[in-house]
Write a structure and sequence with these properties.
The chain is an alpha+beta fold. It contains 5 helices and 15 strands. The strands form 5 sheets. Strands 1, 2, 4 and 5 form a 4-stranded antiparallel sheet that branches. β11 and β12 form a beta hairpin. Bound molecules: 2-amino-4-trifluoromethylsulfanyl-butyric acid and cobalt (II) ion (2 copies). One cobalt (II) ion (CO) binds next to β7.
Length: 290
């Protein structure tokens, strides 16, 4: 690419003043192939317009989760939680990304106790005192996706369940703290795994975080386990989710054979999850949705 060509990132600026020094730095990194190190593909590097788009989508997504936080309670069925989020997103000009995504029938996921993720909202599932619940919301605005989830504790939750929820939140925060420009993706998984294991918990391996932006799920797959200094190089302009699923018991999961969506812990133990959409900047990270 010539200095005076328009930059490949789509910013509309010439290459020389846009991603030229970025490309030089990217090329200069010596990759250790035996550690599975690789460079990110160009199509997952966001420009300023993309970042603004994801951020705006994130504002609506956060608003939907805030609304749920204010209203969720014992006695509420999970379809009501779904409608709260659905209506909020639509009223603010967004589209609930989960609805009809690969055939998913509802606008959000609501996952209670031993459900790891992808719980389908319905009228018959009623929240009760002591439940721990993950609500996972994804919004599309002007073609940009923002993805986040939070845990809610319904009424009086046992100390064991509360600890799982709290440690899982710490796992997400520690994972995000390990996301560094010019670091490696394996740093994130290694940090999360260490904190989970230290607390006697296991990390779900079959599902993970993901790149996000113009698509719901982009490269890379963000494993919540792994080794430092392995995997994809992390660079400014990447947007990823960190969304550890942590089990109180064993890490194995099973998928519901009837609905083909709901993921349960195999041993019936409790599971928790928190998720944020995170931008890697020149100097660190910025949260785009939480
Ligand atoms: N929001 C989930 C994630 O964090 C994906 C849900 S897909 C659905 O990646 F189809 F189940 F909604
Ligand atoms: Co999500
Ligand atoms: Co996600």
């Amino acid at each position: 690419m010539l200095d005076t060509d328009l930059c490949w990132c789509g910013s509309g600026r010439i290459y020389k003043v846009c991603h030229k020094s970025f490309d030089e730095r990217l090329k200069s990194v010596k990759l250790k192939k035996f550690r599975g190190q690789c460079r990110p593909p160009r199509q997952i590097i966001k420009n300023e317009k993309d970042i603004e788009g994801i951020k705006k989508s994130g504002v609506i997504n956060n608003g939907a989760l805030d609304l749920i936080a204010e209203n969720i309670c014992a006695g509420m069925d999970t379809e009501t939680v779904n409608l709260l989020a659905h209506n909020y997103i639509v009223e603010h000009g967004g589209i609930p990304a989960c609805l009809n995504y690969e055939g998913f029938p509802k606008s959000i996921c609501v996952s209670i106790n031993n459900v790891v993720c992808h719980g389908i909202p319905n009228r018959d599932t009623v929240l009760k005192d002591g439940d721990i619940v993950n609500v996972d919301v994804t919004t599309i605005l002007d073609g940009y996706f923002a993805d986040a989830s939070r845990m809610f504790m319904i009424g009086n939750v046992s100390p064991k369940a509360r600890k799982l929820v709290e440690v899982t939140k710490e796992c997400m925060e520690i994972g995000i703290a390990a996301l560094k420009p010019w670091g490696f993706l394996g740093d994130v998984g290694a940090a999360i795994q260490h904190h989970a294991h230290k607390n006697g918990y296991s990390v779900v391996r079959q599902l993970g975080g993901h790149g996000v932006g113009k698509k719901f799920h982009e490269e890379p797959f963000v494993a919540h386990f792994g080794k430092k200094n392995t995997g994809m190089l992390l660079v400014p302009g990447m947007v990823l989710t960190v969304e550890p699923m942590i089990n109180a018991g064993k890490d194995e999961v099973v998928i519901d054979p009837f609905d083909d969506w709901t993921i349960y812990t195999k041993d019936g133990s409790l599971s928790a999850q928190w998720e944020k959409t995170v931008l890697i900047t020149e100097t660190g990270t910025e949260i785009l949705a939480d």
